[in-house]
């Protein structure tokens, strides 16, 4: 039903019943339904031709398509697709345009080769009692300190604060800077059995 239709199926049935069963005139029934007299006669003629089923909307597809793709060709396209051939390969095999093959595959619901695979089972879980499983939602919040340079246009102190390890996104240890001290114990890799030293030595971080 298009968006400008004045009558639904129930409105058309009411219009026809008023004329056929309640002896309304077509003019009066059309005015009561808010449609033209021509529309009223149209629905009355359709009702008399086929009953109430004729009051439903008709399909917009043409009744006759002399240049439609033959059924045998559609079945051949489907058969090749189920052998997992691509659309261009099917077009070359049957001598059809790619656009025709693509339209047929989409109409068959086989537009993608993955449509041939069985659907994976739903990843669901069930619990015997309510409350056995707790869902926790997390969210990262930004640290906002004042108005940024995009609004103020002031970039003069931005580099200095970053050089000192200050500003948004910078963290400093509570007791000064970090000091790295290599451990001189030599370890052997559990698989290769080779000692680790130099760059492979363990690093211990201390805060002053």
List the helices and strands and how they pair.
Elements: H1 9-20, H2 26-33, H3 37-50, H4 71-82, H5 87-94, H6 98-107, H7 149-152, H8 158-163, E1 178-182, E2 187-188, E3 195-196, E4 203-207
Helix pairs in contact: 1-2, 1-3, 2-3, 4-5, 5-6
Q: How would you explain this protein's 3D organization?
A:
Helix 1 crosses helix 3 (37-50), helix 4 crosses helix 5 and helix 5 (87-94) packs across helix 6 (98-107). This protein has a two-stranded antiparallel ribbon. A two-stranded antiparallel ribbon has the order 2-3. The relative contact order is 0.05. The radius of gyration is 38 Å and the shape is extended. The chain is built from 8 helices and 4 strands; from the N terminus they run H-H-H-H-H-H-H-H-E-E-E-E. It is mainly alpha-helical and 208 residues long.
Q: Main traits of this protein?
A:
about 210 residues, mainly alpha, disordered C terminus, 4 strands, about 5% strand
